[in-house]
Structures are given as C-alpha cells and as structure tokens.
Specification:
The chain is an alpha/beta fold. It has one domain: Protein of unknown function UPF0759 (TIM Barrel, Alpha-Beta Barrel), CATH 3.20.20. Helix content is 36%, strand content 15%. The chain is built from eleven helices and eight strands. The chain has helices at residues 22-25, 38-42, 53-56, 61-68, 94-111, 129-141, 159-168, 205-208, 213-216, 223-238, 255-269; strands spanning 11-15, 48-51, 76-80, 114-120, 147-150, 171-176, 195-200, 243-248. Strand 4 (114-120), helix 6 and strand 5 form a beta-alpha-beta unit. Helix 4 (61-68) runs parallel beside helix 5 and helix 10 crosses helix 11 (255-269). The protein is globular, with a radius of gyration of 18 Å. The chain starts with 10 loop residues before the first strand and ends in a 15-residue tail after the last helix.
C-alpha cells in the first residue's frame, strides 16, 4: 500500500464508496481483505471518502463513530442523504427522517470530520412548483450542515436555481457524466465560496441507460480527459471557492481509485492537492 498523497492545497480527491470486494481482485486492496478492514487501508491512500451506504439506510451514530476512529483525524467524509428524503419521500415523515439523519452524523460533526452532506436528487425530480418548494423546505431543515446538491434532471440548470443556492451558500455539485439530453449538464458553476464538489460518473452512455449499475459506472477516464479538468476546469473553480471535494463513482474493476490517483497527481502539478486541516466547522 503506497502512502497517501500529500494534502497541501485546497482540493481533496477520493472515491464514491470504498467497500468493494472486486477492488481486492483488481489490486487496490491486498487479496483477502475483509470489508471491515478496507476503510483503514483506503485512508492510507486518500484523504476523503464519500459514503454512499447512507443513501440505502439511515446513518447510526455508533457505526459512524467506529468508522471515523479507523481513519486519521485529518480525514474527511462526505455523506449522502438517505433516500427517504430524496427518492422515496413520505410527506408526513420526512422531517422526522432529517432529525434521525442529523443524530446519525453527530460524531462526524463533533469531530470536525464532516466535509459535506450530499443531496443526490433522482432524474425524475424535475423542476416543478411542488418540487421547488419541497427542496427549499428540505434545505431549511438541513441548515447548518455543509450541503451539496446534485441534480440529475436538466430542468434545474437555470440561473434562478444557481442564484438561490448561492444565497443559501449551498454547493451545486458539478458532474462528469454522459452528455445525454435529459441529464443535468456538466457545468463549472460555483455557488458556494467555501466549497465546490465534483463527481465523476464516467461517460458510458450505453451503460447509463442499461439500468445496471455495473454497466452504468463501467468507465475508465483517459489521461487527456483528466488533464482537461486539472488544467482548466479545476483551476477556474478554485478561483471561486476556497476548497474542493472530488469523488470518482466509476467503481467497476477499481477504475475509481486508479483515476483518483491519476487526477491527484495532475492536481499536484497545479498546487491544488488537499490540506488535511481545511474543514472549518465553526458554523456547524
């Protein structure tokens, strides 16, 4: 296991999830590594991780506390909001879900290890009057946490939306994904001067439509594709935000950690690798 990259600048790079058995087969983890031992090994290579399991189930404080104790104090987590508040919303229950979610994240907040809460909205979440009101209410309930919103439907790509996020200091997630007509486009719009957030999903257009996650996120970025981001887009984004989070979601066959390490090296050439002490939790 190679040492973790230097974190001496404003951008942290990692992967969306870390507990993939196939990553041991692909050589990222030693063969035979059990899921319970993966986070410690992962944190030797990267300074941040995006937790995706919290989309499927509500985070629980004891489990979150055990996780944070497996990593260095300068490690940071981005945590996805549970689907009961984004995809399977019960109008009479969602505020209670927010309260449970906050309780579950408490160990990260208290330890200063929470980098962001990711609200990933589904492609079916079009920009309609009821949905605008729901999103506003959800952001109100989550206020005080570092929030980042990823839209999947292109109807949200509007100046009025960006202005409202800027007013709230909520981060608009930039995506690298196939340029399909219905998807939210890949933009460099920065709405929060404290943080920008980028997710690399891969550019497999055929796989995206397949309904199979293994096919959807099966993509390996070429060096020229990563250079375009490192040498132009990230340079521009860091001019508008103090810090950045970047996560690769192309997890199939350990392509995500391989691309994350490539991008980290490219960003190091620009002086943009992440500072282990950059998260300011004074306002949380």
């Amino acid at each position: 296991m190679q040492p973790r990259e230097s974190a001496a600048g404003p951008v942290r790079v990692g992967t969306s999830g870390y507990s993939y058995p196939e990553w041991a087969d692909a050589g990222f983890y030693p063969r035979g590594t059990r899921p319970g031992g993966m986070l410690t090994l992962y944190a030797q290579r990267f300074a941040a991780a995006e937790l995706n399991y919290t989309w499927y189930q509500m985070p629980r404080a004891p489990a979150i506390d055990r996780m944070r104790r497996q990593v260095p104090a300068d490690f940071r987590f981005a945590v996805k909001l549970t689907r009961t508040m984004t995809h399977e919303v019960d109008r009479g229950q969602w505020r209670g879900q927010v309260a449970l979610y906050r309780d579950g994240l408490a160990p990260l907040v208290l330890a200063g290890q929470l980098a962001a809460v990711l609200l990933q909205l589904p492609a079916s979440f079009e920009r309609t009057h009821p949905r605008r009101h729901y999103l506003a209410a959800l952001l109100d309930e989550l206020a005080g946490l570092p929030l980042a919103v990823e839209f999947r439907h292109r109807s949200w790509a509007a100046d009025r939306v960006f202005a409202e996020l800027e007013k709230r200091r909520v981060t608009l997630v930039a995506v690298d994904a196939p340029p399909l007509p219905h998807l939210f486009p890949s933009l460099d719009v920065v709405t929060n001067p404290e943080l920008f957030y980028v997710r690399f999903h891969g550019r497999n257009a055929a796989g995206w439509r397949s309904g199979n996650m293994q096919k959807q996120f099966d993509y390996c970025y070429g060096l020229s594709e990563l250079k375009d981001w490192a040498e132009t887009r990230f340079v521009a984004m860091t001019g508008h935000a103090r810090r950045g989070l970047v996560f690769f979601n192309n997890h199939v066959r350990a392509q995500a950690p391989a691309n994350a390490r490539q991008l980290t090296a490219l960003l190091a050439e620009q002086g943009l690798t992440g500072d282990p002490a950059w998260v300011d939790t004074s306002s949380i």
